[in-house]
């Protein structure tokens, strides 16, 4: 056995070092007959310990919050309907309330009779059930009226009606919200109304007024920074009010023979009423323009003219623009509208 020699191998442990254990030497004869030395296993003593893992790295900073797209989506809150008073929601509420009330009444009666209900018990509750049915019918009718008004208003806003005709309808448009009656008007009258006004003004005036109104709308749209055009801005524009006043003078002046012209106007409107769907109320389906409703409508329509004629300066201005005879006839018509 060859002499054992000390190894210079060093294993590091952090900041300290120790000599490694000694190894045995193995001598073998090579093919050429010369001895070959190689190291063998460790000799005696404790085996070298395994090199410890590197010291742990400093605690890493908390990972950045995942991007919104990688984050687990949180449950969304219940979406509120755009219109809390939607037709579906209201009809469900009405039906649920009515049925629930009937069921509760039947349960109470059954509990009072030992859990049983007889035909006689149901007959006794029939009057109460009939009352619930009448209440539900009234609620449904009121709801239908509200939605009919909402649909009409939306349609009026979306319809491509000429700006000029929008302008002259605006003064009495609030009357469309009323329930159909002899003293009111509905949107069903608009086709005949536009025909009548167009004939009273004449095609040249209608064309000129419409062109002026379109120019005003184009200017207001160019000046507006909003995405949607606000028609209320147009209705209150000074130039638009001047157009409407000019039209009101001419229309009113055509009613110097008030009775004859009023009958003509009413008949023309009633001959061209807008068709109604089956879902409208019976009162709406039967409605026609009557003299009280006509006078109320005309009084509202000509409100600008009445206000201007109430002052001397305003009257003088209208005479310069339209002539004394036209203004006098218009003033006579305003008086007849009030007294009938």
Please characterize this protein's 3D structure.
There is one protein chain. This protein has helices at residues 87-112, 119-158, 163-169, 190-201, 203-223, 231-235, 238-253, 258-270, 282-286, 291-301, 303-309, 312-322, 324-339, and strands at residues 10-13, 16-19, 23-29, 35-42. The chain has 340 residues and is mainly α. Among the domains are: 87-142, no CATH class; 160-339, no CATH class. The model is unreliable at 1-20, 45-50, 55-73, 75-85 and 152-160 (pLDDT under 50).
Task: List SSEs in N-to-C order.
Answer: EEEEHHHHHHHHHHHHH
- Count the E strands: 4
Describe the biggest sheet? 2 strands, antiparallel
Percent helix: 55-70%
Q: Please state the structural category.
A: mainly alpha
Give the rounded overall mean pLDDT. 76
Low-confidence stretches: 1-20, 45-50, 55-73, 75-85, 152-160
Distance between the termini: 144 Å
What is the CA-atom radius of gyration, in angstroms?
Answer: 47 Å
Number of helices: 13
Strand order of the largest sheet: 1-2
The portion of residues forming beta strands comes to 5-15%
What global shape is seen? flat
Question: Which key features would you list for this structure?
Answer:
single chain, disordered N terminus, two-stranded antiparallel sheet, mainly alpha, 340 residues, 7% strand, 56% helix, 13 helices
